[in-house]
Write a structure and sequence with these properties.
By secondary structure, this protein is of the alpha/beta class. The chain is built from ten helices and six strands; from the N terminus they run E-E-H-E-H-E-H-H-H-H-H-H-E-E-H-H.
Amino acid sequence: MTISLLAVHGNGGGGERFDWMTPHLPEDVHVMAPTLPGFGGTAADPTITDMAGYADFLAGRLEGLPSPVVALGTGIGGSHVLEVLRDHDDLVDAVILHAPVGPRLDTRVIPRVMNKRPVAEIVRRGIATPLLRPLIRRRFFADSTPAERVDPVLAAYAECQSFAQQFQIINAAWWDSLPQRRTPAVVLWGAEEQVLAADMADDVRAVLPEAEVRTIPAWDHFPMIDDPPEYARVVAEAIRDLVGEDR
């Protein structure tokens, strides 16, 4: 049986973030990792002004994929997967959400500040600049992660046209508008996550009440970059449990 895995990246970069993980997945898991408009050096789509627009973009990539289809979303990618479930849940059999953005957006300081486009643009440029790279590496990546994996991830922020937009369209009102879904789901969260607190994982059950939460002890914000084989192992295990196959 072929399993289709739609992998949706987080903010700042594109689908290339999954390139290091993909070779470590089982051979019958076929990965599609599209880059959202305005990410990864692609041009922003001026017609996409809200979450529904991105969901329609992803739905176009989901149509025709062999079933079962599992959607994996990391960070804002998890948010976009949740939006797909609003109107296109017939295209997805199960979801894996890795630290999705959404809970507590009205109380957390960073989302409220980053909602202002000039602030978000300053932050985006700061992440991308080589001058700050050593500091950001020490803060958000494992010491053992090689520069050839870290540097492209941070450099990609320089070309991310849609970075600031995400802080405006992924907001508390959007989160509160999400309908509950009974879609089989696993929520992954790193115990060492420094951007999105691990205790927010349970908040996702407001949208996916039957979701299973799995806290991964060693994970920080970029486990797919820090340890691609381990990330693939955890994702493959979730896939196996969701589709009910002995993988």
